[in-house]
């Protein structure tokens, strides 16, 4: 029965009740509210953490250094079961093909442009772009531009290993079958 056409026995229309009238005010039922988490626990919350750090440029920009001889990185934050790293990339610098062991992660480009070489081919990531990856996901990240780049990496659980792989997807040759 459609509530818009419902009537009483006397033929008068029934009032349509809102969800609030039916369920009551959720704010008055405190035990049903989820408290705000001090530390993220879901992939969406980790991605949100990365976005909030990215938005607070004053908190990380002064820490960034560029090193032409090696990749520069700085552990920015740790929490229960996660850590946050800030990395810089000079032109031509890359990570090499690697995975993150048992850790999942969120990569966020804070400044510049990076190219991720993964199983589906190259993917250009501009400022603000995010990539989420599961344990064992192998990729190579490279700065293919003529300008420096900065990225933020959130690992959960914290990074304990970063196994390198022998063949770079950026340099793979395709041999006809």
Task: List the defining traits of the structure above.
177 residues, alpha+beta, 8 strands, 29% strand, globular, disordered N terminus, disordered C terminus
Provide a descriptive summary of the structure in words.
- By secondary structure, the chain is of the alpha+beta class.
- Helices cover 12% and strands 29% of the residues.
- The termini are far apart.
- The model is unreliable at 1-8, 25-29 and 168-177 (pLDDT under 50).
Query: Helix/strand/pairing class, anyone?
Result: alpha+beta
**Poorly predicted residue ranges:** 1-8, 25-29, 168-177
Query: How many H/I helices?
Result: 3
How much of the sequence lies in strands comes to 25-35%
- Distance linking N and C termini: 63 Å
Helix share bin: 10-25%
Shape: globular
State the major sheet. Answer: 5 strands, antiparallel
State the order of secondary-structure elements, H for helix, E for strand. HHHEEEEEEEE
Short recap of the structure:
The chain is of the alpha+beta class and 177 residues long. Helix content is 12%, strand content 29%. A hairpin with a 2-residue loop joins strand 1 (72-79) and strand 2.
């Amino acid at each position: 029965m459609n509530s818009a056409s419902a009537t009483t026995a006397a033929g008068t229309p029934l009032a349509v009740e809102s969800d609030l009238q039916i369920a009551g005010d959720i704010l008055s039922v405190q035990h049903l509210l989820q408290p705000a988490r001090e530390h993220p626990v879901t992939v969406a919350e980790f991605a949100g953490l990365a976005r909030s750090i990215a938005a607070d440029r004053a908190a990380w920009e002064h820490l960034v250094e560029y090193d032409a001889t090696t990749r520069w990185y700085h552990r920015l934050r740790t929490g229960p079961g996660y850590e946050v790293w800030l990395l810089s990339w000079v032109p031509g610098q890359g990570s090499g093909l690697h995975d993150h062991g048992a850790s999942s992660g969120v990569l966020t480009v804070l400044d510049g442009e990076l190219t991720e070489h993964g199983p589906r081919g190259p993917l250009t990531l501009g400022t603000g772009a995010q990539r989420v990856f599961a344990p064992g996901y192998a990729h190579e990240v490279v700065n293919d531009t003529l300008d420096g780049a900065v990225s933020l990496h959130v690992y959960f659980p914290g990074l304990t290993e970063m196994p390198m792989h022998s063949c770079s997807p950026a340099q793979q040759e395709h041999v006809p079958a």
